[in-house]
Amino acid sequence: MATTETLVTVVSPGVQTTVQDVDGRCGLWDVGVPPSGAFDEFSMALANTAVGNPPTAAGLECVVSGPVLRFDRTTLVCVTGAAAAARLDGHPIAVGAVIIISVLVDQTQRRFLGGRQVE
Fold it and tell me: Which of 62, 64, 107, 117 has the fewest CB atoms lying closer than 10 Å?
């Protein structure tokens, strides 16, 4: 039986937040699909490795402003690259640090605001 549990809910996607992987989709130029993939491959690979994922795994890439995410279960997050304003429940988090996001005792869902913010 498939689980219906949600790990993360996108409350607000941010501007130009996309799911990217390190490798992209190579070999499809002949049908009009560019390789794409993470713009900052090194930072994406570092973040993945830091949280225990394969270095080439997909992740969120935030270009203009980051998303607001709500977590329903404990998870690990690592923000890398040019992020300037990542926050967890309003508190700044360090770029490059692995953050454990855990649901609070009263089952309050935690909010993460990532990436650059446009004022």
Answer: 107
